[in-house]
Amino acid sequence: MTEFLAFFKTLTPTGYLFLLLTALTVISAMGVVTARNPIYSVLALIATFFCLSGHYILLNAQFLAAVNIIVYAGAIMVLFLFTIMFLNLRREDEEAKTNLTKIASVIVGGTLMVMLIMIFRAKSSQLPVGSTVGFEPNTGMVENLGHLLYGSYILPFELASVLFLIAMVGSVMLGKREAGDRHF
Amino acid sequence: MALPILLTKGLIILVIFGISLLIATYSTYAERKVAAFLQDRIGPNRAGPWGLLQPIADAGKLFFKEDFIPSQASKWLFILGPSLAMFTALMSSAVIPFGDSIRFAWDNVNYDVKVQGIEINIGVLYIFGVVSLGVYGVMVGGWASNNKFSLLGAIRAASQNISYEIALGLSIITILMMTGSLSVRHIVDQQATFFEWNVFTQPLGFIVFLTCSFAECNRTPFDLPECETELIGGYHTEYSSMKLGLYLFSEYINMFVSSAFISALYFGGFHYPFMNEVNGALENSMGAVTGHNLATAIGFIVFFGKILFFIFFFMWVRWTLPRFRYDQLMNLGWKIFIPLSILNVVVTGAGLLYDFKYSSWLIVVVMVVMAVMSQAKAPKQQVVPQRTV
Amino acid sequence: MQLTNRAKQVSNKEMTLAEKMYLPAVVGGLAITIKHFFRKKPTIQYPEVKKYLGPIYRGHHVLKRDEQGRERCTACGLCAVACPAEAISMVAAERKKGEEALYREEKYAAVYEINMLRCIFCGLCEEACPKQAVYLRHDRMVPVFLERDEVIYGKDRLVESLDDRYIRKNSEVATTPTEPSLTRSTT
User: Fold this and answer.
1) Per CATH, which fold does C61-158 belong to?
2) Residues 22-51, chain B, touching C (beta carbon < 8 A)
3) Which residues 6+ apart lie within 8 Å of B356 measured at CB?
4) Structural element, H or E, at residue C90
5) By CA distance, what is A76's nearest residue in B?
6) Is any Cβ of chain B less than 8 angstroms from the Cβ of C36?
7) Is it true that domain A7-90 has CATH number 3.40.190.10?
């Protein structure tokens, strides 16, 4: 306990902020899994994204933080919420959970957790240790990111954008009415 | 950060917060007055001189109404909805540069504090992020009411906002290409000369942006989420008392912020013609500190003049145009604005390659020529009998 | 046949590109509304400024007195019968000796009440009255009431006072013999 307090006292304000954000992230991520109502689940997921954006800002990656909020919290989660509002998932989903599915999900989830912990424990020694000496505070800024994306990584970037274009055209083709289709 | 800077920043943030609340409050009054004047009426004139105390009376009325929560509603989300709407609306004015800078000396140190909540290099993205969150207030409130009309309104709001955000973003990209920065202050500073205001270099982008901001604010002609004739009020059907008030209030704050954003991005922000001459004269005659502060104050007032004009424009359009049908709204967003703004990006990019800023006019000219030609070719009056089913 | 000259031939032809852009039409609409913005407003500030409502306006009821100040009403009940809203009720009484200066006829209305919540101000009582006793004033309205017991108007509020006689100056209908005046006596 005293060790913990001592550790607590050494923290900078940023450290406190980090701890707070982490606690919030974990709590809201737990909320995603445990919430009964899918709407609450989605809202908790949005809160999680917010906390992650907070972490990005702490890492001085403002661009990533803003884009994370615009793309994930602003667009994708709205679509999630949108879909869930259409499906009336109030009572029907309770019946789907038989004992078999519960046991299966516990086994799968547990295995995944064990694997992740193993991987992190095995590879933690190889992780680069952050140091304040060689740290360039502008790394995460939008200018550097732009130079990087349009310089060294121009080919993968453009390929990814082509991929998105293909996905977009594909969805338009799927959604398009054929000549004889019924009009709604 | 030094204490004087913190104090001034805090003061600036408080003042901006207060001003945006005040403008939002009086927008309700102005809305009614403008509506009345456009319809040959006088409007509220009983509470105080010219009805100036009307917003206060309205707010007082809303506070004393019964705060009703429907029994089948999800209670916490029902409360969360209007709070989110208000929260996101108030957050977005943080990065808008309202004026140049305030100069003062403290303990023999000279300070130069920018009249802006916070200057970050991703200002435009920040506003986008906050605006895209604005829809949650509507969605959560609409769903939590447990009312079909509210839910439909919320779903309409969500799909409308997502659709128009794309065109909104694409129409700004041309400005970002020309300035090479995401900071709103840089964008404003690049429009120092009158003919380089982005509205002159990007007329098409401006029209697309203006229309999309109407849609993002849920203002007429795009006020489908709260369309009374179809949805009896839309997402706030079940709301009463100050919860309803917060929804309506956040709409006006959004309007203020979009007006500020439009003026900053396209109308040179706090710049005005012959600003440099005026500033030079002021600084020469009154000293570098007082003159500069006075120049900043003039810029601040000019900026608010632009904002107020656009708020008036929002109202003017609201009481002129009828509401769009929902499929028309979606067609306009997806089939017209998005291709147009992509075309605009391509043409502007091509123009920038040859250092020509006004290439966006090319599309406008082509469109006008095509329109005139089609108008000339069309038969004058032709009555096609209506198809009977 | 045309009722007005403002009818327009509707055309549902294909819209041209200029019309599909909406912008010219939008600008035109904005021009129209801004013209109205600067137009003089026809509003009349009601409680401070009152508009003359014309000589045939039907307002506050009045029970007339004749030129000698006697009440005209004889409590025949025709007004109550004519009233579509059944707002009028009355109690008749016989004129005693010595009351000739008060009541014109031998029978009079001891109680005459109009329920102003029911009254629809149609003026049928005025038309029905054979004695030209009840009129709806053109110059005065029934004031707003806030309590239920203010609603029923008795004789105290209906009979005209002697220093505030009601004369209807109506140039267009002056020839009709039933216009209220001070001089004319009716049989």
Assistant:
1) Alpha-Beta Plaits (3.30.70)
2) 34, 37-42, 45
3) none
4) strand C88-94
5) B162
6) yes
7) no
